[in-house]
Amino acid sequence: MCLARDPLADERMPQQHHDEEEQDEDLLESLMGAGAAGSATRPLWLYASDAHVWHKVAGVSGTLALAAGTYGSHIFKPQNPVYKDVWNTANQYHLAHTAALLAVPLTKRPQIFGTLLTLGIVAFSGSCYTAALMEDKSYSLPAPFGGFSFIAAWASLLF
């Protein structure tokens, strides 16, 4: 197959162009299985179409996690040392689940897994960072919802 197309080729050979489209559709159908619009045997490469979105989400999250870790290690000096532990816990969960975001396109249901991981990072780590920074436990109220989001994300891989 030639990568550079002749712009007049479609006008000169419309039947050949139509045949190529049918061959492409036949190839896709054979790879996915007959009638596989919602088939569970969908090849992994078809999920990669949304990979760039999830990799960008992981990139932003990873950058923020590393920045938060650096801030927590070198600058953050709370009056109550318990909040240093809260910050570090938030950062560990943030980093671990950011790494998991890289695998989102390879899962059976990437939108569910990725969304739940992202919600977990924001709700759990975000609220813990805020509680530690403000040194006020009341800011950690969304943390259990973030934890549940993490659990639901990992459980979604079972289905």
Automatic annotation (TrEMBL):
From the UniProt entry, list the residue stretches annotated as the region Disordered: 1-26
User: Top-down, what is the taxonomic lineage of the species of origin?
Assistant: Eukaryota, Viridiplantae, Streptophyta, Embryophyta, Marchantiophyta
Q: What is this protein called?
A: Transmembrane protein 256 homolog
In which organism is this protein found? Riccia fluitans
Superkingdom as given in the UniProt entry: Eukaryota
Q: List, as start-end ranges, the regions of compositional bias called Basic and acidic residues.
A: 7-20
Tell me how this protein sits in the membrane. Multi-pass membrane protein
Q: Which UniProt keywords apply?
A: Membrane, Transmembrane, Transmembrane helix
Stored InterPro entries: DUF423
- Location of this chain's protein in the cell: Membrane
> Principal place where this protein is found?
membrane
GO (cellular component) term, any one: membrane
Q: Give one Pfam hit by family name.
A: DUF423
Q: Please give the start and end residues of each transmembrane region.
A: 112-133, 139-158
